[in-house]
């Protein structure tokens, strides 16, 4: 709707942009370095951050950067599940018929992980929205990692979730699993200057080099988004829509104030 008005060649602030075109903030660079370290050394990591901070995006970027011949990424699609369902989905993703018994499924997954490792491929188990995991599933993950030997780690485990994930792992009963998560990172939002650069980066990706958002608009955008990329995207898109409806070529502070009063994210 507003794309032609601003001379965009595509809709800006989209979700499905190539990983090579992602905006690289300081925190994003730190996170991808830690993720690569965890994956390449078959370590276990706890990643936390607010909704829309870019956790899944960073994991996706690292997965695409690494060779599929050396690393096998396995994703848990739905963390709100029973233990048997978790093993069923994992084994099916590995093209293995899942047995009915949980103990047998655990043994089968362990054997598969060991076989992949011996063949030169590191299994990487990624559990997104891990703050939703039940105590029984967390205990099962502890049992799954029991066969790990310090001299020869078999697979990498990445638990990614909201900040409450850290509090969950700190609870009594989760100490053993928490101790195995030797790497931890909390992804923060962009700072003010990064927010300005992020906005310019996305409008440029959409084909417009000139400033579309005024300084006041960017300040307002940063204050209300707290530098969280998903919030920035939603607010910026609403600002562009309002500017189009008003027939103006730039998004100023007044427009962004109106956008923030209307947008739910």
Short description:
The chain is of the alpha/beta class and 265 residues long. The chain has helices spanning 3-6, 26-40, 55-65, 83-93, 102-118, 135-144, 164-169, 175-180, 192-205, 215-225, 229-246, 253-262; strands at residues 44-49, 71-76, 122-127, 156-161, 183-187. The longest helix has 18 residues, at 229-246.
Any overview of this molecule?
This is AAA+ ATPase domain-containing protein. The protein has twelve helices and five strands. By secondary structure, the protein is α/β, with parallel strands linked by helices. It folds into two domains: 82 residues, Helicase, Ruva Protein, domain 3; 162 residues, Rossmann fold. Strands 2-3-4-1-5 form a five-stranded parallel sheet, sandwiched between helices. Helix 2 packs across helix 3, helix 9 crosses helix 10 and helix 10 packs across helix 11. The radius of gyration is 22 Å and the shape is elongated. The two termini are 21 Å apart. The model has no long low-confidence stretch (mean pLDDT 93).
Keywords:
single chain, 2 domains, Helicase, Ruva Protein, domain 3, 265 residues, Rossmann fold, five-stranded parallel β-sheet
The portion of residues forming beta strands comes to: 5-15%
> What is the radius of gyration computed over CA atoms, rounded to a whole number of angstroms?
22 Å
* Main CATH class of the largest domain: Alpha Beta
The helix/strand class is: alpha/beta
- How many separate structural domains? 2
Give the mean pLDDT: 93
Helix content: 40-55%
Q: Which regions contain 5 or more consecutive residues with pLDDT less than 50? A: none
> And the CATH topology of the largest domain?
Rossmann fold
- Tally of helical segments: 12
Q: What is the CA–CA distance across the termini?
A: 21 Å
Largest sheet: 5 strands, parallel
What spatial order of strands do you see in the largest sheet? 2-3-4-1-5
Give the CATH H-level superfamily of the largest domain. P-loop containing nucleotide triphosphate hydrolases
Count of strand segments: 5
Question: What spatial form do the alpha-carbon principal axes imply?
Answer: elongated
Order of helices and strands: HHEHEHHEHEHHEHHHH
Task: Write the CATH architecture name of the largest domain.
Answer: 3-Layer(aba) Sandwich
InterPro entries: AAA+_ATPase (IPR003593), AAA_22 (IPR049945), ExeA_AAA_ATPase_DNA-bind (IPR052026), P-loop_NTPase (IPR027417)
Protein name: AAA+ ATPase domain-containing protein
Organism: Pelotomaculum propionicicum
Pfam families: AAA_22
